[in-house]
Amino acid sequence: MEAGGCRSADGTARMIKKILQTYRGALFDLDGTLLDSMPIWDRLCRDYLLQEGKHPEERLEADLAAMTLSQAAQYVHRHYGLPHSPEAIIDQWEEMVLEAYKTTLPLKPAIPALVRELYDAGLALGVVTSCFPTACEGALKRHGLWPLFSTILYTDTVSQDKSLPNIWKVAANQLGLAPEDCIVFEDAYHALQGVREAGMSFVAVYDDSCRDWESMYAQADFSIRYTGIEKRKITADPGKNPLTQF
User: Fold this and answer.
1) Are strands 228-231 and 222-225 parallel, antiparallel or unpaired?
2) CB contact set of 162 (below 8 Å; sequence gap of 6+)
3) I need a surface site. Which of 60, 62, 109, 173 has the fewest CB within 10 A?
4) Alpha helices in 23-146 (DSSP H)
5) For the domain that residue 180 is a member of, what is the CATH number?
6) 22 and 87 share a domain?
7) Where in the sequence is the domain holding 153, given as residue range(s)?
8) CA distance readout (Å), 4 to 57, 136, 155, 221, 244
């Protein structure tokens, strides 16, 4: 693992120690952050539309990226003139992916050890995801991580996507913490705005599906690549965040 530009276990330990000194809770995205599942999502809606005899537009994945499941289903129902209700579309999508979540999808490298270390140190942990509840539960239980999270918040339950601050504030409240006491691990650039507006710190997690990695990397407090963890310059007020000094 890599931390603060230091290719050593000591560098990683210093980084984790600083997080433990600064925060009381951590919130994790599921797909692309905890779970190496984005290839499924990158094809799901396109494959579904092709099955329905429709011709997906080139921008489809970019248009859907920031949407909740309900928003995405409503969009494709309306935009492509599908005969099925948005609720039926969601049920069909879930059927298409559920088996992979329960049986084959792997965790992202480096992340599981980090989750367990934060948990063992006493941080309150939660998941904020747009995934199907049954799929999320199936994957986390299979990998032994389910008991480590004290809350799982699904975007559809608050009817807002991650680009807005409310879902992050709700998640922090479910952990019993103030937003500023939480740090968020995410692979989606659109979530950065909501996290910042909620008053939280942000860890950019690399995934091959990231469309705006360089921008997210530049604005994040930390970043996690497949090879490990790297410290990034804090963009918030230095007086408010002790992570500016490492």
Assistant:
1) antiparallel
2) 29, 66, 128, 130, 155, 168, 186, 188, 190, 191, 194, 195
3) 62
4) 38-51, 60-64, 69-79, 86-103, 111-120, 133-142
5) 3.40.50.1000
6) no
7) 9-37+106-244
8) 41, 32, 32, 11, 11
153 and 84 both lie in a single domain = no
Residues 21, 81 within the same domain: no
Which tens digit of pLDDT belongs to each residue from 109-159?
A: 877 888 999 999 999 999 999 888 999 999 999 999 999 999 999 998 887
1 in a structural domain: no
Residue 47 CA to residue 64 CA, distance in Å, equals 14
- Please check whether residues 190 and 236 belong to one and the same domain: yes
Give the residue among 133, 129, 135, 47 at the shortest CA–CA distance from 99.
Answer: 135
**pLDDT tier for residue 173 given thresholds of 50, 70 and 90:** very high
Answer with the residue of higher pLDDT: 16 or 121: 121
- CB atoms < 10 A from the CB of 163, how many? 18
